[in-house]
Write a structure and sequence with these properties.
SH3 type barrels, single chain, 5-stranded antiparallel β-sheet, alpha+beta
Length: 179
């Protein structure tokens, strides 16, 4: 049956979206004027050109809505349902890949986060030569103090140090991606 469109007198104007309606009615509360909200009704329809669903506006509770009104009946063909299911599976696969990439990036960021006692290497920047390695002895507000060797002054502080932005450093220990 698809979507049957009627005018304000109830006369049938046309029938559309035959064999494509996946969900007959979906309601959303929408702001239709600056301080007025209305329940708007939609039918979820398969669009084969896009390979995705489209919400077709079929009615409104707003008093100024003048039609046409649609009466939707779920009538999706088996081919449309199969294409819809394939699209949902593909979207879920992409979402899972994205989550996996983000988790890998988060593990790598945590691995390279400067902590006291870690051996780190400078990989960016212009003031401290790239490739410089040292032990982290100070971390505050994104800045890191690297002890380049074990030499100390008379007060026991490291004598040969470099001050680097924490984002310019990476952990010298190999990253275990499987962990």
């Amino acid at each position: 049956m698809a979507i049957t469109w009627t005018n304000k007198d109830g006369d049938v104007i046309k029938v559309s979206h035959e064999g494509l309606v996946l969900k007959a009615r979906k309601c959303e509360c929408v702001r239709v004027m600056s301080d007025i909200y209305s329940d708007e009704f939609y039918a979820v329809v398969w669009d084969s050109e896009k390979g995705d669903t489209v919400d077709v506006h079929i009615g409104s509770c707003f008093e100024l809505f003048d039609g046409p009104w649609g009466m939707a009946v779920e009538d999706a063909t088996p081919e449309v349902k199969e294409a819809y299911l394939g699209m949902l599976i593909e979207k879920q696969r992409r979402r899972d890949e994205q989550v996996s990439r983000e988790a890998e990036e988060a593990r790598r960021r945590e691995w390279n986060r400067p902590r006291h006692g870690m051996r780190m290497r400078v990989v960016k920047g212009r003031k401290v030569p790239q490739g410089t390695e040292g032990i982290v002895f100070w971390v505050r507000d994104g800045r890191v103090g690297l002890a380049l060797d074990e030499s100390r002054d008379a007060k026991g502080r490291y004598a040969n140090v470099a001050w680097v932005d924490g984002s310019y450093l990476e952990n010298t220990a190999p990253f275990d991606a499987a962990a």
